[in-house]
Amino acid sequence: MAVDDPLIAFSRFGLGTRPGDLAQIGADPKAALIAELSDPTSLFVSDAALPSTADAFTQVRQYQMARKLAKEDANIAAAGKTAITDGMAGPIPRATVDKNGKINVPGVSSPQELMNAEIAARVDRVLAAPIGLGERLVAFWANHFAVQAAADEIVRGLAGAFEREAIRPYVLGKFGDMALAATQHPAMLMSLNNATSIGPNSPQGLKTQKGLNENHARELMELHTVGVDAGYTQADVTSFAKVLTGWTFGRAENDPENYGRFIFRKYAHEPGPQTVMGKVYPQQGVEQGLAVIADLSASKATAQHIALKLARYFVADDPPPALVQRLATTFSKTGGDLKAVTVALVNSPEAWSAPVEKLRLPQEFIWASFRALALAAPANFVNRTLADLGQPLWNPPSPQGFKDDTATWLAPDAMTTRVDTAELMAAQAKGLPDPRQLAADLFGSGLSDDTRTAVERAESPNQAVALLLMSPEFQRR
Fold first, then answer.
1. Are strands 247-249 and 279-281 parallel, antiparallel or unpaired?
2. What is the pLDDT of residue 383?
């Protein structure tokens, strides 16, 4: 492909082409990508049907309580007729049980139903994005600050709200603001166990003998900020974990103002100064944690860590050192301005000239397929298909998030699943043009002779579309 090829804009930086996209992007694909970043609010999701974090937490807790009380009753039918009341932000609705034993709470969504609504909103964004650079950035940062929906029902119910409230508003803002928002979000506090971490010498620690959980502090350093090679020690992790004690969220039903929202509990906070990576933090209370996170976010090690991850995610598994250094320098000079870093990425010649070798991640494959086929599949299909492909939304196997290197996703069984998925999506698509025309619309001059021949020789239109989805042009970026 030529440098600044429009197809690169859609495949490497965006979500994939739709019929007609290549003709509309214009002569300057870099400018088109940067223009997509001109309005940071375009990445916000303002949907009245999607609850805030606090409201989602309330629904999860109401659902859990209704289910618990229904299951406790030996006569399930009687439980379905019994009004369930609780002090939790008002009475809990009446629980009913269908013939399959499923608990239904009228007016209250289950954790999976909350997630399904968030998935549907994400699909809408994917289909509507002009190129999709902003949505790719959202996916990158949501994976960088990964929460695990399987860790807890509360995390599952809040995962979509986490992305909407702690990631999207900051994708084109300051990294430090995103790091703080992610750290303080209830989904993260639950996923990494900080919500119940207690300072050993705090009033609560001395009274209950319950203690420290270092998970959140460790991942904040290793994964979210400075990186594993930054030279910190186990003592630094322990000190930082003490700094973060008392960082939790409201779960008391009799405190609706703080219910489902970040709070600092001085009663659980480890008193005294702490030393993290050679610096003493004498601040008291929540200010101590704010100071540490600000310093970690501004570190040159963080700049290098983020630059390498961004270059690897967008460009190559082994990205050009000059590109990585340019991004790191931009990060440091701008105080972690993520829009400036993204513009530097788009304007870097290495980002356009690198060979097209990276395999699309499963989510990217599904999103690109939906766009190519104008396929608005229901949330259950998306959830099930992404799980089959190994990359379900908001549910990586570890706090590290999903890996983005080609080798991880190139296993033979994984590619077989992609073939099955391509055939299924091809069968579901309606009103498509002739597959030969579709191939030309999607790839233009980038369509190879081999793929063109395969599409022409297919035994049926569905097979032709499935072959197109599995072609090197479609699978690689």
1. unpaired
2. 95
Q: Taking the domains of the chain in order of start, what are their residue ranges?
A: 53-108, 192-298, 300-353
Judged by phi (left if over 0) then psi (alpha if -120 to 50, else beta), residue 270 lies in beta
CA dihedral 52→53→58→60, nearest 10 degrees, is 110
Q: Which helix H or strand E contains 186, and what residues bound it?
A: helix 186-191
Give bridge partners of residue 259 from the DSSP assignment. 250
Give the 3-state secondary structure of residue 340: helix
- pLDDT for the residue 342: 98
- pLDDT confidence of residue 79: 46
Q: Is the pLDDT of residue 92 over 70?
A: no
Q: Supply 268's token pair.
A: 């659980």
| Long-range contacts (CB closer than 8 Å, 24 or more residues apart) made by 18-27 | 18/371, 18/372, 18/374, 18/442, 19/372, 19/433, 19/438, 19/441, 19/442, 20/441, 21/131, 22/441, 22/442, 22/443, 22/444, 25/131
Express the helix, strand and coil content of the chain in percent, nearest 5 each.
60, 5, 35
Q: What is the mean pLDDT of the chain?
A: 93
List, in sequence order, every residue forming a beta bridge with 249; answer none if it has no partner: 262
pLDDT in tens, 364-403: 999 999 999 999 999 999 999 999 999 999 999 999 999 9
Q: What angle do CA 219, 223, 228 make, to 5 degrees?
A: 95
- Per-residue model confidence as pLDDT tens digits over 116-169: 999 999 999 999 999 999 999 999 999 999 999 999 999 999 999 999 999 999
Query: Distance of CA 112 to CAs 30, 108, 131, 175, Å?
Result: 39, 11, 30, 30
Measured CA distances, 372 to 207, 298, 368 (Å): 60, 40, 6
Tell me the pLDDT tens digit for each residue of 386-445: 999 999 999 999 999 999 999 999 999 999 999 999 999 999 999 999 999 999 999 999
- The residue type found at 431 is G
For 360, which DSSP code?
P
- How far is 120 from 267, CA to CA, in rounded Å? 41
Which amino acid would we find at residue 185? H
Query: Tell me, what amino acid is at 4?
Result: D
Residue 242: CB atoms within 10 A of its CB come to 25
Positive or negative, the Cα torsion across 352, 356, 357, 360?
positive
CA separation for the pair 50, 67 (Å, rounded): 22
The structure's pTM equals: 0.95
The one-letter code for the residue type at 334 is T
Distance CA 249, CA 14 (A): 36
How far, in Å, CA of 337 to CA of 113, rounded?
Answer: 35
State how far the Cα of 127 lies from the Cα of 123, in Å rounded to an integer.
6
